[in-house]
Amino acid sequence: MFENFREQFILNFIDDNRWQYLTNGLLLTLKISIFSIIIGIILGFIIAVIKYSHDNNGNCKILNFICDIYLTIIRGTPVVVQLLIIYFVIFGSTRIDKSFVAIIAFGINSGAYQAEIFRSGLNSIPRGQYEAGRSLGFSSNQTMVKIIMPQAVKNVIPALCNEFISLIKETSVSGYIALEDLTKGGDIIRSRTYSAFMPLIAVALTYLVLVMILTQIVKHLERNLRKNER
Amino acid sequence: MNDNNKETKDTLIQVKNLCKQFGKKKVLNDITVNINKGDVVCVIGPSGSGKSTFLRCLNRLETPTSGQILFDNVDICNPKTDIDIHRQKMGMVFQQFNLFPHMTILKNLTIAPISLQHKSQEEAEEMAISLLKRVGLEDRVNSYPSQLSGGQQQRIAIVRALCMQPEVMLFDEPTSALDPEMVGEVLNVMKDLAKEKMTMVVVTHEMGFARNVSNRVMFLDGGNFLEENTPSEFFDHPQNDRTKLFLSKVL
To answer: Helices B150-162 and B105-116 meet at what angle, rounded to 10?
Structure first.
């Protein structure tokens, strides 16, 4: 039994340096995840502020309309389809780095979800806080930056963490545009060695560890933010 | 109209033909009032009469449907007026206190003077602490709002508005959200303010405060000021039938 395990291990990971499929895949997965999270944060934040100020002050009607279309389309279609469209249709005629395409696709996708998270965070702050800021003479923007956002950030972190976790796992469909991410790496090993158990379990464990590390970081961050409150 | 409503050189706020509609519902109906420097005006009336809306129109937290509000002879209803400048001179105290929960008391009091009036931190803190001493809360500078009782929070909220050195203070039912035993401490602070000749417009259900501290009492119902008088006349010899009915219920 143990002999068999050892053999399998060597076959799947040691021979021909097959472990490199996993490490290179992991690096690519991390790269795609981190950059698309950043794009998502920026997009989501801007959209949330536009929608919040539209809902509360009636500003930016046209921008709000554009944001609504974006949210409807992105949330209404599968991320794989979006990825394929961006790769084969939008960038179809240009030679372009595939990982860049993936970052754009996942960033745009995540932005829609993060926009709703940020918006619910802003809405969770009582209207009275906004009015108190304005009544002191702060402009609408100053009130947002100094009073509403610092409070909203704390409320947003758990939901945002959730979104990051989904995003990391969603990048596993990058293989559809022939990117060798973590999932694809494991799958390549399987196709070479004809054994599924080891590579796929290794891939699953890697995702699990990634998510657990992220969860711990966020927990720590949350605790620190709460400490500042009282 | 009452003598108090004559326009004098001491007029601070002139409200002319103010109307406010929410959809089809008329909340304020052609209101004309002058508020003079040093006035302590109590606005009373049944709930839904438009008291709070009237007060919130005074610093444009509600945008009036029509009419004019002149503050320091500037029409603040004009969309071109920079309302933020004028709001700095109009302190507002809310029913729900609305302190900033993520800041210490000291930060709550100094953030606006430092960022809007460009005071130095020392200057702003010095003023905040001297005002805190007057309301007896100087030992709470480093607390957070959630650590204070409602009455303490409301006193801090008054101080926060005072830190901007306003020309007028607007109070929107400042004691309505408080436990009964905390009402007194807030009213005392307001009484002291009135003694110092601060101009105040107070929407309140505290008839005792209206009778003893204010110099004008106005009765608002259905979006109209039905009666206005000095407190003693108002409470002892109400003229309007609706006022009589209201007073018979609350006194």
So the answer is: 20
Hey, what domains does chain A have and what are their CATH numbers?
2-229 (1.10.3720.10)
pLDDT digits (tens, 9 = 90+) for A135-177: 999 998 999 999 999 999 888 998 999 999 999 999 999 999 9
> pLDDT tens digits for B98-146?
999 999 999 999 999 999 999 999 999 999 999 999 999 999 999 999 9
The verdict on A131 touching B (C-beta cutoff 8 Å) is: yes
How does residue A84 score in pLDDT terms, banded at 50, 70 and 90? very high
pLDDT (0 to 100) of residue A56: 80
**DSSP letter string, chain A:** -HHHHHHHHIIIIIGGGTHHHHHHHHHHHHHHHHHHHHHHHHHHHHHHHHHHHHHHH---HHHHHHHHHHHHHHHHS-HHHHHHIIIIIISTTS---HHHHHHHHHHHHHHHHHHHHHHHHHHTS-HHHHHHHHHHT--HHHHIIIIIHHHHHHHHHHHHHHHHHHHHHHGGGGGGGT---HHHHHHHHHHHHS--HHHHHHHHHHHHHHHHHHHHHHHHHHHHHHHHH-
Q: What is the ipTM of this complex?
A: 0.91
pLDDT of residue A228: 60
The residue of chain A with its CA nearest to that of B86 is: A137
Determine contact: A150 vs chain B, CB below 8 A. Answer: yes
In a mutational test of the B interface, the residue from A56, A136, A225 whose CB has the highest number of chain B CBs within 10 Å is: A136
Find chain B residues with C-beta within 8 A of A129's C-beta. 98, 100
Selecting from B94, B98, B164 the residue whose C-beta is nearest the C-beta of A137 gives: B164
Q: Which two tokens stand for residue A143?
A: 């009130």
Stretch B245-251: mean pLDDT? 89
pLDDT band at A9 (very low <50, low <70, confident <90, very high): confident
SS3 for B36? strand
The structure tokens listed for A94 are 């240009």
Residues from chain A that touch B90, judged by Cβ atoms under 8 A, are: 135
Q: Residue A133: its chain B contacts at CB < 8 A? A: 100
What share of chain B in percent tops pLDDT 70? 96
